[in-house]
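Hi P.,

Sorry for the delay on this. The queue was packed all week, but I finally got your sequence through. Input first:
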Amino acid sequence: MKVVNMLATYNEKDNIEPMVETLEKIAQKNKKYDFVTLVVDSHSPDGTGEIVKDLAKRKKNLFLLETPRGLGISLIQGFQYAISKLKADIVIPNDCDFQWDPEMIPGLLKKIEQGYDVVVPSRHAKGGRDNFNAFRKLTHFISNTLVNYYWGGIREVHDLAGNFKAIRVKNILDKVALDRLNVRGYVIQSTMIYELSKTQAKFIEIPAIYGDRRAGQAKVGFNTQFIKDIFETVKNATRIRFERSPGLLKFLKFGIVGGIGFVINFVGFRLLKIVFKNLPLDISLINTFANALAAEVAIISNFTWNNLWTFSEEKIRSVGKILGKFVQFNLSSVMTGIIIPSTIIGVLTKLFGDQYSSIYFVVAIFGITIPLNWIIYNKVIWKKK
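Then the structure:
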């Protein structure tokens, strides 16, 4: 079974040779595996790549892949190389600074042998810990836990930010569409957990201690790249949340369309009042007609955009069905948007007085109109076949 230890490096000249030697010693103690080391270097200006080239002249199981800068780009290209060129059965990505202890590798492989597909050393598992200062603890909590775990919904493991893990290739890593991943920075870690989960991979998280750097400078700091990583993390977690919860995206579209309809109704009412102001009618009738016409324009807008956008997968296409469904949509809009909420507001006013009328309006719209519309649209108007 071929195991590819994949080291992502940038300016690691002081760590690369000790790490390669350490991995060789681990290989000598575990001869049942065919170990290969792949260094994925982002053209380090300190000469890390040149050191690897010199080492590779006398080490047949050491390979160098030079990539553009960006951890995401490097790891994606490294995974592809390990699968296609090195024919890996297991890939173990890691950093080169010894903060993740490479001596854990035999234990990771044992878990793979036990039937797990992805083995994640974790700072969040019982017995695990990190060496973070207050700034790193805060940023890790925000990125790992709040953004990716809770908002993104990536909950296969608790530690989503570590590079170190063992991944089975057959039917797991080779099923990930690596060429379609569009991530550049540290968000590659949580993204890979998510992508691996789509292959029905069996995960296990084991405790790990994240230690101190052996040498060199840490890459994490408050700089331009850090800001870019934050935006990429939020963007990616949001994409994953919507992919995992398609109903949430549909509901967001429903809200946007409803909001546009509200603006059309409000602006249309004001404009039509001006247009109708010279009619020989009482102002109450003018307001009634202006609002009714503006509301109908808003209803037409809502129906059109919900059909084309919100419920695009259930889109009504034939002219006959469109006319029938539009009549249903109109009737439901009148019931849920006018009659029902107006009745509720009137009853609440009768019971508790007019001083809370604004609260009654909010309760009627958000507690009755919006949920009822959402149910009717899904279950009646755009009911799945």
